[in-house]
């Protein structure tokens, strides 16, 4: 039975979804490949909505420049081998210059290596692992939107400060979950808190009640959910069901997007504390961006990950226009160096910059999910609790162990 | 505090109970598969998608028509069961004379298509569905906090399983069904409309999956891939219990739920694989399954 499933999947993998207008690229046409999950668990937080965000960036910038830009999209199916195969094909054969988005830390790390080898540009928005700007950093990669260190500091730090000094982690058992647990654990300990234990739940596990009951019996004040997507939604739903929060234990959701909150519904999600670097209703500029892009998003709402795709592509186009599209195509590392030299500014994240290690920096926002009575309309979900300023939100440059920084 | 194998006793009892609750889902799902395989000889890979459709149908009834959980429990099995009847008439019925593998491929493909359509229509993040007000709250058992809804799921699953078993093993209709499995032409010769019976049996199996979906909607995320996550484990349950064995799938469903629950305490990382390890051992030692006839 499983052999049939596998061969069907690999047949599907061999045909990446092409949204471009054919492969007849002219010399000065910039080609952007959006590589993400178009059909699986991360479709709503990346998927076609990211493609719409990238097209918006091209439209917003296009009027000001003579650049011709083409967009293709591919489905990596959350498999590192599928992702790096599509990346290789795009860069070798199809003339793609930039790969954008790539959620799923495992796939992102694989694509990271391919892009460096081909000297192209990798603008990651969707993946969480802070290793992309740490030990695995390259001169071709910029990690745009968020990372595990930033989430750990914003959400973890705030909960310890509010009295949550003993933690138990329920962790997704793969690279991303381990990194998030490690980074959060370090913050808890550094702030004088204790980590009482952890349990590693297999990815895609549907029933979290066993793990939650174990976490509760540790008598920790905070249960940290180091997972994502449907895993987090299931765990939060079941924590409410088993009365975990009614007994005073708090749930820390370490990674949650507005699309996950929508899936949970405010009744189950109210009171959760989470961190994003973008919220559509944050200020006039974010609202303006959302109004422009929303008609192209098929009912979905932009999360920080989609905003990151927009912002990253916009900044790349600025750099490419500045150095000339031919030069930007010829040398990916040079294009990234130009992006690092220019300050960033856009509707989603405001003013910011790209550091030497490839980390894009901007403020991080700690939100609380509103109760159903407080929400005034569709997607009115967050209350701003605190803002971590731009120079404190991400891991200090010297601590990441990125070889580009030492040299 | 008393400890058993270094685990506090209350925690262990709690996990046994949770295992039983999950086992209820496994039993209900594998029961539908066993009924379909036993009578149609079709390995119904669409079962996960039909489970998912059950959960979505409950959501649609609530959001679009304002019909609550209890209505869903009655209407959803009928609606989804009917889609099963249509599927059987239009496609599956053409494959009975062919090898098992054709039925498997067809139902697998249909399952993928249904899942894709729902993902396209409703996205991948899922939709909220609340526990009905009558079943909210929980009992404090001392060693754990037991949500009333989970208790309801176990009771509902047990009643359904028992009723299905009685229907097939103890009634005249069940006797016809079993006879048709053994020798369809002979039963037809006695004036029983075998093709219609087979069609309705498929619809019944699908309805069981749909009820599972309705029961699951308030506790799991209602999303297009919810069936895929469950169905692989359920297939292992069916193989361990013995393909087509009704009682086997019920007992194995509850048993494996408990085994999985205990694994979550002693070695959480292995909890997703333990069922398949058991399946491998059973296949080597008793290829027909624990309750199957070789």
Automatic annotation (TrEMBL), chain A:
CDD domains linked: PBP1_SBP-like
Pfam family, one: Peripla_BP_6
Domain Leucine-binding protein, chain residue ranges per copy: 29-371
Keyword check for Signal: yes
Superkingdom assignment: Bacteria
Keyword match Transport: yes
Record's keyword terms, sorted: Amino-acid transport, Signal, Transport
Signal peptide start-end: 1-27
Annotated Gene3D superfamilies: 3.40.50.2300
Family: Belongs to the leucine-binding protein family.
PANTHER family xref list: LEUCINE-SPECIFIC-BINDING PROTEIN, PERIPLASMIC BINDING PROTEIN OF ABC TRANSPORTER FOR NATURAL AMINO ACIDS
Name under which the protein is recorded: ABC transporter substrate-binding protein
Species: Paeniroseomonas aquatica
From TrEMBL, chain B:
UniProt-listed InterPro entries: ABC_transp_permease (IPR001851), BCAA_transport_permease (IPR052157)
Pfam families (alphabetical): BPD_transp_2
Transmembrane segments: 12-35, 42-62, 68-87, 99-118, 149-168, 200-220, 232-259, 265-285
Keyword Repeat in record: no
Membrane topology category: Multi-pass membrane protein
UniProt keyword list: Amino-acid transport, Cell membrane, Membrane, Transmembrane, Transmembrane helix, Transport
Cellular compartments annotated: Cell membrane
Family, similarity comment: Belongs to the binding-protein-dependent transport system permease family. LivHM subfamily.
Protein name as catalogued: Branched-chain amino acid ABC transporter permease
Annotated source species: Paeniroseomonas aquatica
